[in-house]
Amino acid sequence: MARYTPPKQSKLGQLIDVIVLLVLAIGALYLPLWMGLAGSTKTPVPQDAPTWESLGQNPTMVEKWNQLGFTDPAAASDMITARFDYSFSWISLAVMVVVIVGYFVMMVRFSETEYREVIAEKFDGN
Amino acid sequence: MATTHEAPEKLGLLRVLGPAHVWALGVGIVLVGEYMGWNFAVGKGGAYAALIACWFAGTLYSCVAMIDSEVTSTVAAAGGQYTQAKHIVGPLMAFNVGLYLVFAYTMLEAANAITVGFLMDEVAKMMGTDGIDQRPFIILAIMFLAWLNYRGVLATLTFSLVITAFAFTAVILLFLFTTVLSGDSPMRHAELMTDLPYGWLGVLASMHFGLWYYLGIEGTTQAAEEVRSPARSLPFGTLAGIMTLLIAATLTWYVCVGLMPWEYLGQAGVPLFDAARLSGSTSLMVLLGIGTLFATLASANGCINDASRAWFAMGRDHYLPAWFGAVHPKYRTPYRSIIFLVPIALIFALGAPLDQVITFSILSGLLGYTFMPINIILFRKKWPLDSIKRGYEHPFHPIPSITLFTLCAVTYFAVFLGYGTQLIAMISFYIIVSLWFHFWRYRFVKRADQFTMPWPRPKGY
Q: Do residue B433 and residue A121 have CB atoms under 8 angstroms apart?
């Protein structure tokens, strides 16, 4: 089997390739942040004039909050009452599964094609 | 840079590292996970959920360490899992794995730099100021460590070894002085522990940040080309590393949940430092403050080392422009890759919130862990045990692979619960760059050069 000789890439071509990769990477990672779609946020449950008791804190917990610098229950109220919302749509979950599985299937199949070329040239090449 | 010039391709990396350096590289990258970040698992599901996540994530990483040790004791070359994928699955998979490694480590490096800045700010506030600008500390940390990496691997990892040992000792001392050595222990587990605030769904959700206890241990394989005896040192260093981390993670959880309410712990920036503050001992507070600083520096140091090796290896193979494949003629380090990744780390360290940066790192790591079961199953199929010599054979195959794959699926769901948009964005990125590689970049790759191991032809090919 004849060996494959790759074309020589110009300096400009190399530079363009790096820029493309960087733009894609930084774009993909920053896009959700810019669009305000990144991450789950906790939602606090505000209380009027909260007390340690109304926030469900026992004396030991109160002592620890005080040591941490929270002497006023109102200051710790949002932190104590905030909760994540874990509700989700099954359709979104199905989309995620399809995207992940599809990605790995595509990658393994394309890799297999390339791998056969590598093995053929390595073991049958001149 | 005036003293450097493009090195001839045959110039190789120096083989100067022993098992202790491998341990330091693995534990050094990861130990910061006990000093910050793991506690977001408490916020996601409560204190008990974080403990369950700690152990399930520990199981996941034990499988990773076992599988990685077998493959890397045989494929001892720079690039770690990237080089494994190249020999076992194929070039496109290798390209993706290389990118997983670069992004997981570069984002982890950014997270470490953010923590350095946060710690300095906390210390300044404790000294009575209104806080300080964190950005100079973030920039200084990244630039100093990049310079250290540029100058040579032995000095870099020896530095890591010393500060990692200090940071690990600090965790042990905090545990001892708040439990067995303390006459009146400040621990209040009975009063502070609560039921699961989100039920079992919260336990699943906490797996997301549960990975942070151990993320990066697989980085030991990146040093394969610079280790004196890879077949012995890599499995030993990696497996000793995961055992160290299992102990440190459990102790960290125990100390922190016994000292502060879970609602505070779940959002704390430097939880072990907070735990030391609550112990009532100034000495412990200083010790854990220094420990936090050292852990973040050791981790960022290892991350720069690993990310640059992966980027370098891809450049050397022309998966990326060959310019990155150069070795410094004097220091014998992949200096162009080291310098190139600095601004990327800075962009994220200075511009993104800590939990987002951690999530980017975890997602890249998670994709890499999903690759590992595929990798080891194909490795055993293409080269059965009696066909090539392995430095280490992991037991009970394929149970670790099935366990790892199942735990990865659970973690994808956990990430989906809070950060589904990032997950889809990141996978979309990998799909696009995979198409870019397969249909464009691969034309510059020499086919036969992708297989350099002295192995027989793979079975079935």
A: no
The Cα–Cα gap between B31 and B14 comes to: 26
Tens digits of residue pLDDT in B265-281: 999 989 999 999 999 89
CATH of the domain at B140: 1.20.1740.10
Backbone angles phi, psi at B207, to 5 degrees: -60, -25
Q: Which residue of B has its CA nearest to A16?
A: B321
CB B235 within 8 A of CB B227: no
Residues of B in contact with A28 (CB under 8 A): 425-426, 428-429
% of chain B with per-residue pLDDT over 90: 58
Phi, psi of A43 (to 5 degrees): -110, 115
Q: Which alpha helices (H) appear in B327-458, and where do they start and end?
A: 335-351, 354-382, 399-439
What is the rounded CA–CA span in Å between residue B316 and residue B173? Answer: 45
Contacts of B139 (CB under 8 A, 6+ apart): B113, B346, B350
**Gap from B161 CA to chain A (nearest CA, Å):** 32
Q: Measured between CA atoms, how close is B11 to chain A, in angstroms?
A: 21
Residue B246 inside a domain? The answer is yes
More confident of the two residues B219 and B300:
B300
Whether residue B456 is contained in a domain is answered as: no
Q: Which of A24, A82, A92 sits opposite B429 (nearest CB)?
A: A24
Q: Which residues of B touch A39 (CB under 8 A)?
A: 353, 355-356, 359, 418-419, 422
Q: To which residue do tokens 């110039």 refer?
A: B11
* CA gap A9, A17 in Å, rounded: 10
Question: ipTM higher than 0.85?
Answer: yes
Q: For residue B19, what is the enclosing H or E element?
A: helix B19-30
Show the domain range for B379.
21-450
